[in-house]
Amino acid sequence: MIDNAHMAGNWPLTDEELEIRDEFRLLLLCARIRIEPQQRELIRELALKQLDWEFIYDKADSHALIPLLYRNLSEICADQVPAAIFQRLKSGYMTNAERSQVFTTELITLLRILESADISAVPYKGPALATLAYGDITLRRFGDLDVVIRLRDIIPAKLLLISHGYQWLRYEGMVTAPDEIKKNRFWHEYNFMHPDKIATIDLHWAISNQRFPFDIDLDSLWDSLEPARLLDQDIRAFPTEVMLLFLCVHGSKDLWWKRIGWIVDIAQLLVSNPDLNWSYSFELATKTGTRRTLLLGLALARELLQASLPELVCNWIRSDKAVLALVEYVRQRLFNEETIPIRNRILERQRFRIKVRERLRDRIPIYRHLVKAAFVMIFVPQKKDRELIKLPGALSVLYYLVRPARLTHRLWSHTTHRSDTTP
Question: How many Å apart are CA 333 and CA 260, to the nearest integer?
Fold first, then answer.
């Protein structure tokens, strides 16, 4: 639960105040490109302890940190890592390096296909981010290829990819029609897969869907695109300030920053771009109603990975109690292994999304989704409702009464059972 009152204290927490187990502390120290001498010594000291290396490997895998962990442990204290674990880390690093090369080659091929039809495309995350923030495509793990194109180009791009053998992975509910984009605007991307290739292609016309609205006109950013290089090929990229905001939106909309690797992306982007135009970044965030979202991503990068921030930005973070509460919430979820029951996850996710938005108009679609989800849960018959009571087809409409009645009975039984067992 997100609680403002808990975060009345100082921010950021010091290393001593950050109460996490040593295994996580080692992961955080290794989750960066540049490691200072003092941090190297801390890594050596931690590696000498009786650590749970299986835990470290599992968390590095789930948080997409294996490439950085292997690179840094191999340079600093390879002899302190159990041989079996070190070999698994090396294998994971090599596999990711090979996969990254294949993905990057495929991305360039995709960009050239789109370019041949005069469709302008901009890589988002994936190899482009690995190059921009890490300086090396092998040090960041990615599982698909995200590309942003103009809304007007979605249908021509879809038909072009299909003509090149790609298969459109259509979500349930998507339609194919002359006005399909208008009818499919609830989504924000089309997904494709080629039977002879390994990467899923995500063609974005927006950064998030209507359940987490991001009020930005992507077409307006085309004039600000910058030249970049990827495997010695010319591409175009969003300005760093724009990419930073995109990453913060992504972290907040998808499972409340559940992956440390997403926070590392923010920190590395800041390290690799010390001359960031903060005025432009916050002007864009304020205009799109994502200022709090941006501050949360920056606060997490500062607290967990010691990313350098201007004092003005730190003061903005400290002045927003909602941001401080969200930082505490994410930290608890990351390091305390708190498990939210499946039945509560939808509600908890939406509460997080509401809390991270500062404008009422951006919260309304989230409230709308909650109301719709509650209606479906309470009134729309499920398989178990139909199995419990067999009704003839003529009376099937009565299942809409069976559903709330069954839920009420379950709630009453649960409440009664708890009161009977309470001492």
Answer: 11
> Could you tell me the mean pLDDT of each successive run of 10 residues in the chain, 423 residues long?
50 84 97 96 96 98 97 97 98 97 96 96 94 95 94 92 94 76 77 93 89 84 93 93 95 82 97 94 94 97 96 94 93 78 67 90 82 75 74 72 72 53 43
Dist CA 32 CA 139 (whole Å): 10
Which pTM value belongs to this model?
0.86
Asked whether 240 and 183 are in contact (CB, 8 A), the reply is: no
* CA dihedral of 123, 126, 131, 135, whole degrees rounded to 10: 170
- Compute the Cα dihedral for 211, 212, 216, 217 and give only its sign: negative
